[in-house]
Amino acid sequence: MKRFNNLFEQIIDYENLWNAYLNARRGKRLRGEVLEFSNNVEEHLIQIQNELIYKTYNVGRYREFYVYEPKKRLIMALPFRDRVVQWAIYQVIEPLLDKQFIKDSYACRKGMGTQKAADRLQYWMRKLERSHGKAYALKLDMSKYFYRIDHNVLLNILKRKIKDDDLLWLLEVIIRSEETKFGIPLGDHGFEEDRIEGMGMPIGNLTSQLFANLYLNEMDQYAKHELGLHHYIRYMDDIIILHPNKEELLEVLEEVDVFLKSELKLQLNNKTSIRPISCGVEFVGYRIWTTHRKLRKATVKKMKSRFKYLKRAFARGEVNADEVRPTVMSYLGFMKHANCYRLQQKTLKEFVLSRKS
């Protein structure tokens, strides 16, 4: 397997840092910390460059907050200068690592995404139904995936792919982030208590998306090359495996469970299931049948809640129409790929913005 070398020099190159700054500020140019950084951008970039060269760089303090849709999740946001560093890394290593991913991994990859993932799954469902009459879907659900990624396992995966010791030092600084614990216990525990050292990735980091994809690429390779699974598809930690034989899927589930526990230190939860595809398969926000697809109930609930919030925020003057429009267009685009014309028309009819007098 090819190992990549001489990447650190590309990362600390001033032009790469400048492009990282431009990417990091996109859509956030008027925020206070971005304006402050931009006022002395050359000085800040040279300081970052020197900290990386002399290995004095440390990750800044995370700002923590929660989102509650579709479930409670802890989001951790870095200071702007650290986001510049993350972009500088991402720009160099993402194209190299992406080439190692399987064709049917769809999350956080250029030219992929939810619609292509849904289309691919539905194509397979139709194909299996035509050839076998009946088929089953094994849906794998990881327990607290982002919060349970093992740092040692992840760093070993990176060491197998990257030969550059300077870059490995930087990645370890970001992954371990000694000032902050990211891991949480399995079960119904709060995020505030019992944080665990040595595991977890902060949701919200650019590198977290890439590393989380890379981590389960180990599972992808095992499924394809060891188990010989053809109808296997993944969107981040959402995995679907189709097969005409339910008993064979039960055997696959046992082997996958052992692999995840022993190699990746991950556990499946009780949402993992095997069901006939005739019941519909929940994937990437849709419930998919061979003949049609609809939005999942949880997706509709999240959309309505988000629109209600935006209407209230607009009425209070907290957001303007230009800030609301991308969210509305995103959901309309999502609905366009499902059989939900009435829901789409009802949503447009009810979503009326007005200011309080």
From TrEMBL:
Keywords: Nucleotidyltransferase, RNA-directed DNA polymerase, Transferase
UniProt-recorded Gene Ontology molecular function terms: RNA-directed DNA polymerase activity
Domain Reverse transcriptase: 1-288
Pfam family, one: RVT_1
InterPro entries documented for this protein: DNA/RNA_pol_sf (IPR043502), GrpII_Intron_Splice-Mob/Def (IPR051083), Rev_trsase/Diguanyl_cyclase (IPR043128), RT_dom (IPR000477)
PROSITE patterns noted in UniProt: RT_POL
Protein name: Group II intron reverse transcriptase domain-containing protein
Native source species: Heyndrickxia sporothermodurans
